[in-house]
Structures
1.
Amino acid sequence: MILALALSAAVLGAQKAPKPKPAALAAYAPDLKQWRMELSPDLGGWSSDRTVSLRVKLVDPKDPNPPKDEPRRFDYEDEEGSYDSGEGREEDTRTAEQLKQVRLDREAEAARNAWRQRTLKVWLNGATLTWSVQVGHSVNQEITAQNGENRLEILEPDSGLRVVRSWWVSTARTRLRVVSIQAQDEYASGSLQVLEPDGAVAQGGRRTPSGGMLRWSGEYTHETPPPGTYTLKWTGGWRGGKPARVRVEALLDGGTDQERRWTWERLILPGAGPVTLGTFDVEP
């Protein structure tokens, strides 16, 4: 009898014994000297776009649990104060002790990953900014450059990582524009030619040494046209075609107080060879 009672007590004691808790993971101590900062695009040289979409990423090559580097999707449920009607959700049957354990696990996870939270100091053309990042996660930022020289400096204070980039932006408007227009719905075979002051000929799809460009659409543009006299010509077209009128317009400094406009119209005979439409001057 005594032996049976002893066995029963041992069984009950084994049933009531609490399960051992898993050992807490040791906090990771990163070696900041091994970190690196990735920046794309790699700014430098010349650009014609003032808006730059940057991707910045802090990388720890010894990261014991590198996160998946993917954009986080916006979820209205993540917003504080968002309305939740509770419809469509299953009843939470967890006990108070279980909910407490979930909260403690989340806090422990946040504490283990606290080292990932970093603040970057950023200087862009004299303006001071701060960007919040997480090690292992890319952050996308859009910056607006200025005309001329630009300088971007990014510093991670704790590691001393620093990235400096300089580049130039030129968004000068197009000063000179020449277009050919069909007159009275007539089709004139042939094409436009623009003779620049230095003797260079701009024709279909070719850029001149000074930067002038005559596209296949028949539009000639130049952002910084050299001063001097420009000559417009129309090359002879299909010999079996019909005579047709061409109309060509040139616009210099359009939309400004210095705007100047010229217009020429000529009857083009099929196969007549290059025909001079007219000339105009660009002053320094």
2.
Amino acid sequence: MPRFLLFAGLALLLACNNSVPEFDGQRSFAYLEKQVAFGPRVPGSEAQKACAEWLVDELGQYADRVVVQSFNHKDKHSGRMIPMKNIIASFNNKPRLKRIMLAAHWDSRPRADQDKLENQHKPIPGANDGASGVAVLLEIARALKKQPLSYGVDIVLFDGEDYGREGELDEYFIGARYFAENIGKYRPQYGILLDMVGDAQLSLPVEYNSVRAAPHVVKKVWDTAERLGYTAFEKRMGPAISDDHIPMIEAGIPFIDIIDFAYPDQGHAYWHTLQDTPDKCSPQSLKTVGQVLLHVLYEEEQ
């Protein structure tokens, strides 16, 4: 083979290896709809049990290893023990590799306490607040299988993020707290949490706790979005939000939260209501977030 053809072939191979996969927003949206179709994924419910089995099976098609971290939580009001589980999918388990963690919560809220009074005892569908972050991570998992990275990635789906009653933070972020308390020697370089990222009117300001804990990660993500032309990532400061990233930050992991808390906007709210349904979400919003994350992940190779 002529040398110039050999070098051209090597250059092409390297270019292909360094290319960023295309995020499929429609497939991701189908993942969102699939979760909602199980019914509200309230901890301890049959719908959540069925959804967990599906998530483990789905991630098992892509990840090198899937671990279910099962535990029980004692409800402070009823005294009942509520079974919960975090689902952990790992890619590239070779020792001594750097690792990056991606996370979302997969449970949905037991009560629609921001809805009208007669609905407040009903569980929410959780299309955006629950299913959207998971939907993005499932499509990222598919990309990681198809085009493996040279370093390690861990996708963690937290249970019990939205279990608590209004004003009782000790019963929120239950799965994230359990994971952080049992983290052992696991130390990813940084982590990215996705929450409420499916809103059809997507708006993603910088979350305050994130920029305090991991300004370099915030810069990496928002600069990437700006370069790609995704204006939903807004370079303005949003509010401080208590979410699953807080236990991880307290465990010493630089962690950020990508979240659209104004759902759909400041004048209206589907958050914690029965209106949190797939028709309020968009494949394009999922693609916006997913494509930015794929660029962040694959550009770590360079």
3.
Amino acid sequence: MAIQVIRKTRNPEQTRSDLLKAAYHEILESGFQAASLERILANTSVSKGALYHHFGTKRELGLAVVEEVIAPQLATRWFAPFAEHDNPITSLHRILEEKITAADESVIRYGCPLNNLIQEMSPLDEEFRRGLQQILERWITVMAAALAEGQNAGKVRADVQPRDVALFIVAAIEGCVGLGKNAQSVEAYQRGLRQLQVYVKSLAT
């Protein structure tokens, strides 16, 4: 009697998604240059052939992580709250409070995935630098637009320069993460964000 062999097929889109998620965590833990394709494959049970079908090189995989994982993460955590509330001061304060409350050892161990790659890859790879800069520019632009709308609604001081303030807030947030990571101190990270909350409140009318 003939035995029918049923081969389990893998969904290509799911395979690609699994590789991106595994690569993101590997890069977060080890950095891009030290990231191991072998560990990424081991964590996904994907074959090396399937990996190279979706991503021709490790660099291509890394750039995809920037565009398809890190950028959407930022949009969810930072852009969406501005759309949900008509007061940017309230939105910013709530986001910072959530970060302070949720801060744990993983924040200071791994830091910010965006900032980590900026520090590691911007001096080494122009395409990485451009991709990371696009994310920063989008972050600043969205925040500046929210602050400008807040001015029009009378909720943000008229003398505030929205883009300059947005740039400063982004720089301060990334600085707090970096400081906490280097000091290996959740408290230092939280204290920095608390002071940023004070600054944000000062922008209100």
